[in-house]
Design a protein that fits this description.
This is Exocyst complex component Sec8. Component of the exocyst complex involved in the docking of exocytic vesicles with fusion sites on the plasma membrane. The protein has helices at about 1-5, 10-35, 40-110, 110-120, 125-135, 150-195, 210-220, 225-235, 250-260, 265-305. By secondary structure, the protein is mostly helical. The chain starts with a helix and ends with a helix.
């Protein structure tokens, strides 16, 4: 069209048009000849192309189906995950309920165990048990209505527990320690009475007695780091349930103090010791006077009997 439009006149256009038509016819004949020559290859190529197209179409359909299946699986997995999460949460809840039931069962046995510990004077175990039980009853088990009576009973025992510990502490501070001195005096008196000697009984040597004051001076206040040693000694105090708790009076008093610390009754303990100090010291003087008088009277009786013939 461009060639025909640039022609000068009609004759040139006709000449150019005839030339183009001839070239087109020649190209068409050549194409027919090539088709005839390559008919087999062309047919094979067309069939191959059709096969490839069909495969691509089938693959697309399969991929589409796979995508739909994956979406379906994803939804199912979401449902399963929610179900599994629900079961997991229920498992945790049941485990927590079982723990609470075990704790309730143990707490119900606390009064009986507490009575046994108090009877055997294992006060540290009793204090730990009582404090733990009251904390549980006023904490995780606060909403359990069936434990209200037990809660009141244990709370009342916790409020009065320190009075028992303070009485035991005073007994070991003022009575138990002086009893050791009196017993040693009696033993020396018996020895002197067995040996027939008119010489006076020697004075008691109390410098080696293990009194609480000497225990404090030697074990706690002898080094500059007294506060840390005092804390360590209190932390290291342990109670052996198989031994007699009162065998070692100093350790027993440490156990009592540790129990009072767990009950948070140290200020009340200090106040009670200060209030009863004068009274207890007077009782020590009174008991010591009575012991000395009784020993002197017994010694006089023994001497008078020894000097009189049968």
């Amino acid at each position: 069209l461009r060639t025909l439009s640039t022609s000068d006149d009609v004759e040139d256009r006709e000449t150019e048009k005839g030339r183009l038509e001839e070239a087109y016819e020649k190209c068409d004949r050549d194409l027919d000849e090539l088709i005839v020559q390559h008919y087999t290859e062309l047919t094979t190529a067309i069939r191959t192309y059709q096969s490839i197209t069909e495969r691509i179409t089938n693959s697309r359909n399969k991929i589409k189906q796979v995508k739909e299946n994956l979406l379906s699986c994803k939804m199912l997995l979401h449902c399963k995950r929610d179900e599994l999460r629900k079961l997991w949460i229920e498992g945790i809840e049941h485990k927590h309920v079982l723990n609470l039931l075990d704790e309730i069962e143990n707490i119900k046995q606390v009064p009986q165990k507490l009575e046994q510990c108090m009877a055997s004077k294992h006060y540290l175990n009793a204090t730990d048990m009582l404090v733990s039980a009251v904390d549980s009853l006023e904490g995780p088990l606060l909403q359990v209505e069936g434990l209200s009576d037990l809660r009141l009973e244990l709370h009342s025992k916790k409020m009065n527990m320190h009075l028992v510990l303070i009485d035991e502490l005073h007994r070991h501070l003022y009575i138990k320690s002086t009893n050791r001195v009196g017993q040693r005096n009696k033993e020396k008196g018996r020895i002197s009475s067995l040996v027939k000697d008119a010489s006076p009984v020697p004075l008691m040597d109390v410098t080696n007695l293990s009194t609480p004051r000497k225990f404090l001076e030697t074990s706690q206040f002898s080094t500059p780091g007294s506060s840390s040693m005092r804390e360590m000694s209190l932390m290291e105090v342990k109670e052996d349930t198989e031994l007699d708790p009162e065998e070692n009076s100093t350790v027993f008093m440490g156990i009592l103090i540790k129990g009072l610390a767990k009950l948070k009754k140290i200020p009340e303990t200090v106040k009670a010791i200060q209030d009863r100090l004068e009274q207890e010291l007077k009782q020590i003087v009174k008991r010591s006077t009575t012991q000395v008088a009784d020993n002197g009277y017994q010694r006089g009786e023994n001497i008078s009997q020894e000097n009189q013939p049968r």
